[in-house]
Amino acid sequence: MRFGNYMIHCLLPALLLTAAADTCAQHTTTVDSLFFRGVQAYEDGQYDQSLEIMQMLDKLYPRHARKTASLLMQGKTLYKLARYDESLNAFRKIKTNYPESDYVDDALYGEGTCLYRTGEAIESVRRFLQVVEQSGDARLQVKAAKLSSEVMEKSLTAADLKVLLEKVLTEKSKAAVTIKLAQKELSLQNFLTAKSYLQSFLDMFPQSEYDERIRALLGKAEEYAAGEFSVGVILPLSGPTAESGRRLLDGIRFAVDQHNANNSTQVRLVIEDSGGNIVLAVKAAQKLCGSGEILALIGELESDKTAAVAAVAQERGVPCFAPTASMDGIAGIGSCIYQLNSTLSVQAELLARYVVLEQKKTKLAVLYPADEYGNIMRNNFVETAKKLGADIIAEKWYFEGAENWENSIGMQIEAIREAGIRRMLDDSLLVRVAEDELDEEHADILQIQGVIGMNQTIESLVDSTNLAVTCIDGLFLPVSGAALEFVIPQVASKNIQTQLIGGSQWYDLDMLNEHRSDADGVIFPSDYFIDESNYNYYLLRNNFRTAMQRTPGQLEIYGYDAVQLLLTIIEGKSLSRENLRNGLAETGRIPVTHGIVQFNADGYNESLHLLKYRNGTLIKVK
Predict the structure, then answer these.
(1) CA distance linking residue 159 with residue 153, whole number of Å
(2) What domain count does the chain have?
(3) pTM of the full predicted structure?
(4) Which sign, positive or negative, has the C-alpha torsion 596, 600, 603, 606?
(5) Residue 435: is its pLDDT beyond 60?
(6) What percent of the chain has pLDDT over 70?
(7) Residues 565-570: contacts with CB within 8 Å, 24+ apart?
(8) Kindly report the CA angle at 287 between 285 and 289, in degrees rounded to 5?
């Protein structure tokens, strides 16, 4: 038997007899004697013996005057014995059962040490900071402050410190955590993040006693941040649209490389591959927006993925540039979203106004795909044209991609031809003569001149391509690039003599040249127009060729211009996300390579080109 146990067992009978016969004074003397004997055992490193004495004391005298002191000693001995859960329980009993005790602060400190040992470092620091805040024991405050600093520095990550910062509420504790968090972010070169947390503290506590120290760190963060800022990029670099994503990224990288080579303020790209998948795009946006270092986002390529990315950016307050998306509603997600392309509704409305008001075309027909793109273009064009007094002679649609959809296009164009012929008959644009007056030998020539037989049926007139349909002033064809291969020759073959009006997807010079005679004169909207005589474009093209060994195309220019727009707003300054948003809201007309960017109050680019294809070249008409 150990000496301590032997001594206790020898004392036990005598103590029991004493307990029964003690006077109050004797009781106090015995409690004190036993308590200090336990304390001495603790100081001598005999932790088992100290624990047994304190536990026996509580058992013999459940209501003795040194109850909280005994619990504190039990907590400390259990801690020394590495029995951390039991130790934690002893400290918590003091806090719960004896909240007015002088030892509550010691219990808090002990609880902090146990929590650290059990892997709860964040809660451990919270307890130490509570001691610093509320203890009247200067010695204990110093110990707690030292331990809180050591644990934050050595055991907590930046992410842990951010969690801790949300949990602490008082100025002193928030100052301690903010300083450690800022120091950690600075060491990770996350200068904007450090700056953000330091500024938030000053905003919360403008008259803080820690003002000088916080501002010193803030100055350091601003100094470092002025030399670099990070831009997140989300594009499909794998999957079915990878080629387009990589071309857009090439333009972004080229613009950044050019800037970094000629400026002290450096741009760092943080690139995420969405794979053309909306879920991966959202995850990439969450990751990038969760970093305080990302000043802005650029992406995605397609409108639906862009909308998903924009929703995350708006929630986190991160400015987001959509370089290619044109679907309606994306910028409307919130004040952080900016579409560099105009929306489909803007394109359709501008076309209708130009055609009706400036070209005086008032008898119109429409052929459109029955999808989201086609419906938006059709609805806005038709509604605007009608308001301006135009007459819609025919509206036809088709399901692109359905079985035999190419044949469907031919049938619908034939239906438009029929509607035109009926209108020509109603408007007396065709001359009907009796069959015996019709010179059969010259019937075809007469039909070309608008002279037809009295008994000729509509069907025969539709089938015959000799008779030109001339009553349709303009034919609006907001169709895709794939459908254009069928639409252009079909309109020509049906002898519909009209002004062709296209959508933005008509911007394909190779395709137009392939159908040069049939497509000549078509008018269509485009966000993209390159003036090849412009010296700045000449320099960009040559520099890009030198760097990339190829000529930049439309997507490369879109990527390049997205970065240029961002750099124009920043102008070498160290900006926060809020500063950048304010700068974007105040922008006027900003010239970029492919045109003009002018954001309206809703974040849409109001600037748009109207182009005409004429004799193998594109001409800007508006």
Answers:
(1) 13
(2) 3
(3) 0.68
(4) negative
(5) no
(6) 91
(7) 565/321, 565/340, 565/590, 565/592, 565/597, 566/231, 566/296, 566/298, 566/321, 567/255, 567/259, 567/267, 570/229, 570/265
(8) 65
**pLDDT given at position 523:** 97
Task: Please tell me the predicted confidence (pLDDT) of residue 17.
Answer: 38
Does residue 554 register a pLDDT over 60? yes
Stretch (H or E) spanning 408: helix 405-426
| Residue 348: count of CB within 10 angstroms of its CB | 26
Reported as a pLDDT band with limits 50, 70 and 90, residue 432 is low
368 pairs with which residues across the strands?
A: 397
What CA–CA distance (Å, rounded) separates 346 from 22? 98
What domain range includes position 414?
345-430+467-526
Element (H, E) at 463: helix 458-463
Based on the domain organization, do 338 and 352 belong to the same domain?
no
The number of residues making up the chain comes to 622
CA distance 70 to 179: 38
Burial of 157 (0-12, 13-18, 19+ CB in 10 A): exposed
Single out the residue in 225, 251, 267 at which a domain terminates. 225
CATH code for the domain of 423: 3.40.50.2300
Q: How is residue 107 written in tokens? A: 């219990």
The SS3 call for residue 87 is helix
Checking if the pLDDT of 27 tops 60, the result is: yes
Going 198 to 201 to 206 to 208, the CA torsion angle's sign is negative
DSSP conformational letter for 342: P
Given a contact cutoff of 8 angstroms between Cβ atoms, the answer to whether 353 and 388 are in contact is yes
Tell whether 33 and 128 lie within a shared domain: yes
- Assess whether pLDDT exceeds 70 at residue 493: yes
At 622, is the pLDDT very low, low, confident or very high (cuts 50, 70, 90)? confident
Q: What is the CATH number of the domain that holds 144?
A: 1.25.40.10
pLDDT digits (tens, 9 = 90+) for 166-190: 999 999 999 999 999 999 999 988 8
Nearest to 232 by CA among 299, 278, 280: 299
* Alpha carbon distances (Å) from 203 to 9, 193, 200, 206, 621: 64, 15, 5, 6, 52
For 611, the enclosing helix (H) or strand (E) is strand 609-614
256 and 400: one domain? no
Residue 9 clears pLDDT 50, i.e. is over it? no
φ/ψ bin of 239: left (φ > 0), alpha (ψ from -120 to 50), beta (otherwise):
left
What values do phi and psi take at 343, rounded to 5? -85, 165
* 139 and 194 both lie in a single domain: yes
Question: CA dihedral defined by 130, 135, 140, 142, rounded to 10 degrees?
Answer: 70
Chain mean position to CA 478: 30
- Look at residue 380 in the predicted model and tell me its pLDDT: 97
d(CA 113, CA 147): 9
DSSP string for residues in 207-266 = T-TTHHHHHHHHHHHHHHHTTEEEEEEEE--SSTTHHHHHHHHHHHHHHHHHHHHH-SSE
d(Cα 178, Cα 168) in Å, to the nearest integer? 10
**Which contacts qualify for 412-415: CB closer than 8 Å, 24 or more apart?**
412/367, 413/367, 413/487, 413/490, 413/491, 413/494, 413/496, 414/462, 414/494
- Nearest CA to 131 out of 117, 160, 110, 155 is that of 110
Chain Cα centroid distance, residue 491: 43
